[in-house]
Amino acid sequence: MILLAIDWSSVGIKALQFILSFSILVTLHELGHFVTAKWFGCRVEKFYLFFNPWFSLWKKKIGETEYGIGWVPFGGYVKISGMVDESMDKEQMKLPPQPYEFRSKPAWQRLIIMVGGVVVNLLLGFFIYAMMLWSWGEEYIPTNQMTYGIAADSLAQTIGLRDGDKILSVDGKYVEKFKAIPFNVILDDAKSLQVDRNGEHVNINIPDKFAGTLISYKDLNFIDVRIPFTAIDSVIDTSVAKRAGLMKGDKIIKLNENKVEFFNDFKRQIAANKGKQISLTYLRGADTLNTSLTVPQAGAIGLFNTDPSKLIKIKEIKYTFFESFPAGFRKSIETLRSYWLQLKLIFSGKVKASESVGSLISIGNMFSSQWDWQNFWSLTAFFSIVLAFMNILPIPALDGGHALFCIIEMVTGRKPSDKFMEYAQMAGMVLLLGLMAYALGLDFWRLFK
């Protein structure tokens, strides 16, 4: 029998953020189709957030359009008269074309209608990034300001990195943002890292399959900022550290007679002693004190170090309203490039699809377990751009598939038959449903694993 310990309050907060984020994305995506269809005189029969097989949670007809909310949260749709879509309304397609139908419009108008949603998602992602930069600015640790070097975990050590190494470049190119280094290693399929080790320049060769290992590893954090353990900043009231008598301001100097200089080393030693009793020597003012405790199986004892921002130089960039737009555009391009390169890694076989593909469960888990507006809007912008990219792929049943057929018609002057479009739509839907089932299966396998 398998028992899963689930924090339902955390799950609920993540679910609410997911639903709100995708409601925004889907509604605006479909609005892109709706507005362009109306612009060219097409009749829009339905406008739905989420799918509504058998019944709807809410619906209301205004004019010629029925607006509603479905109960299956996998997307949304607009039903445009005379268009072969997921509704598979074959009866309507048997009737003679009407002037207000999609199929009666010129190919260039149908193309604009089909890419309307993609354009809206691209513009939305760009706009959110711009407004975030205007509101919150940007903070990061410059790679050349890593005073104490890196904390190299077990994966980093397998390729030759060591605690205290200062990374100079990736494949000979300087990376300004320290946290961007793992992404550069993955997305650019980096072959080497150049580091400063105690004043000596050392070249670290990266194995061929390292990107595939890293992409599924601990949120990519194989290297971290090395921080001195100056003093305890806070102690959780219900923790074993509190029960052992540790207090804010105490400075731990030894763990089982091993000197404690850096907080990363301390956390590593704590994790290595799960379920075991350890002794701690610490300073409180001018006094040297000792205590002992048993490390919980979680591998943490409930205390925190001084805020890293007080020990490491963090660069802050503030943007004016007008400066935020080019900065937001650059971030959108970086996001598109990053996602495209991730797909290339999967199709090249360097990253296993089983380790990288996920469904709604994986997406929902990306949201914070506490409501965090900055994280919420950052993920919404990211998903908006990814949604645009995925929808423009030339797959039947996606916007890109319909757009491709319009382009072919514009080039050849020959329009695909309605029967061909029906078969193409069915094939595309089978493919997409198969991919969704595969991704959902992977998520359940990871959950129970």
UniProtKB/TrEMBL annotation:
It holds the Pfam family Peptidase_M50. GO terms for molecular function: metallopeptidase activity. Keywords: Hydrolase, Membrane, Metal-binding, Metalloprotease, Protease, Transmembrane, Transmembrane helix, Zinc. Its cofactor is Zn(2+). Coiled coil: none annotated. It is found in: Membrane. Residues 211-286 form the PDZ domain. It is a multi-pass membrane protein. The keyword Hydrolase applies. The chain crosses the membrane at residues 111-136, 376-399, 420-440. Its EC number is 3.4.24.-. Belongs to the peptidase M50B family. This is Zinc metalloprotease.
